[in-house]
Amino acid sequence: MFLRRNRKNHRGDSYDYWTLVESVRTSRGPRQRVVATLGKLPGLDPSARAGWEHIGDILDGRAHPADFLNQPAEPPAWAAIDTRGVRVERLRRFGDVFLGLALWRRLKLDAFFNEAIASGREEIPWAAVACILALARFCAPSSELQIADFWYGKTALDDLLAVAPDKVNDDRLYRGLDALLPHKDGLFRHLQKVYGEFFGLTFDLLLYDITSTYFEGQAANNPQAKRGYSRDNRPDCVQVCIALVVTPEGLPLAYEVFDGNRTDVTTVEEMIETMREKYGHERRTWVMDRGMVSEDNLDALREAGASWLVGTPKAMLKRFERELLNQADWTKIATGDVEVKLCAGPACSRETFVLCRSPLRKEKEKAMRGRQDEALARELAKLQAAAAADKRTLRDLGRAERRIGRLFNRYSRAAHLFDVTVESVPDAREPKKQRLKIDVRRKEELSDWAALADGCYLLRTNIEGRDAAELWKTYIGLTQIEDSFRIAKHDLGLRPVFHHSEQRTKAHILVCFLALVMWRTLQHWMATSGLGEAPRKLVEELAEVRSLDVVLPTAAGPELRLRTVSRPEPHLAILLERLGLVLPGKPKPIQNVVEKIASKNQIPQQLEKSTP
User: What domains lie within the chain, and their CATH numbers?
Assistant: First the structure.
């Protein structure tokens, strides 16, 4: 490893800077790789700066280190570096937290929390604690204890946020959760304003859906933690339900937490009222899945003067059997294999229905139903044979009915196609003895209808003046909210919940919501920069950019320690350039960094300039 002097001309001025270079062996022979760019160190005092600029004389052989070392009475004007002792220390994750901090500032969340949470006697501002919690959830989802004991100390956030690692402990992070929760509604209003400024959104169209997240443990101190329908296939655990409202672009706008046994359809009216009270503007268009639909909910939407576009239960398709059989007037969606058709609703309701069918979905549903049909018929035949043989396991009427019920639950797609009756009849061989008789009848008329309805679904709306294709594209936007649930659970660690109190659980969900906002904003940022929509890959790549200390031992004895950022790989440098992010390029002497941290509790100006 060695130092190399470089000369650069910029706007007519010529200056020298230094790079730390090491020789490495590659498959194509020895190569030289730049470890760090050291620069001219403008932060040093004048005498040290002059000494640094004269290192070139030593490297070029025009001066000898001994000529300058025999002056013990006063500090040398320059220092000779022993290249054999040059080393790198204090490697910290920089790139991913730098990106997260840029997003935090882009969304003006630092300004919001600084204004929302009044300062008191706390040593670390709660706005900084909120930033640490959200960045940890965004970069490396983990518990508060994990953040304090391991994660924070391995990042460069102590330099970027001016919060020393020994000040970040689990107690402060838990109290930070408590400080954040009361400002949830204000955060929603802030996001609405920021989205409007950055993306020009009007919030006339909102997507609504609900999911659940389960607890590890009993959560005895949380009255909302109850058993219910689990979207995570964990019916053995208590859970809470989370209702989320997003824009058609997938940007999270608001959420509410409900009891774990709350059914989807009962949350709609409350959520509509909540959005009306907090944000006004009642005349919105709500897009919801069929699990949210009930006549009471539609009445509530009518009273609010809102429009809606909702899915309908499968049973309502039966009313449009004639339209399904009619092969005319279908419109094929240009971007897929879906065909749609407008159908008029009842004249008094002024509603419109949209018939949708997909050949690919039809084949899938036909295969799934066919497998369940065959399996259920086979199991019912076994029960019939066992009842005819008078096996001991089928002598009890209630027990036989429960077995049939379990089969219907296991093969739910085919259960409605069979009619099964169980009765107790005299045994032909022993008239005084009773045995069970099981009759199984296949409903052929329903089988024909099921084959016709495979791959078809129905939408319902009171929106006027839209064609079928436009309505379908609006409804399919619900995939955005489903993707938000997947991101929150898999990438941001929403589940499982380890907190046992109601307030801490809600605060945990709020931090996950903040991380989701940052994630979705990054997706749009990447999309507009032509980088696709895979934030996790970008965050993982940027995590390879490290903050490090370059230690340069001098011949005079003291060591020169410089804090700098590693140079990203070429492909990563291209990504940063496309995003408009500029990494700090000049090394900084440690004493200057310490002075800045002690005197200024905010993000360095370099980051502020690089934030888009």
Answer: 1-66 (no CATH), 81-183+502-612 (no CATH), 201-358+455-500 (3.90.350.10), 361-453 (no CATH)
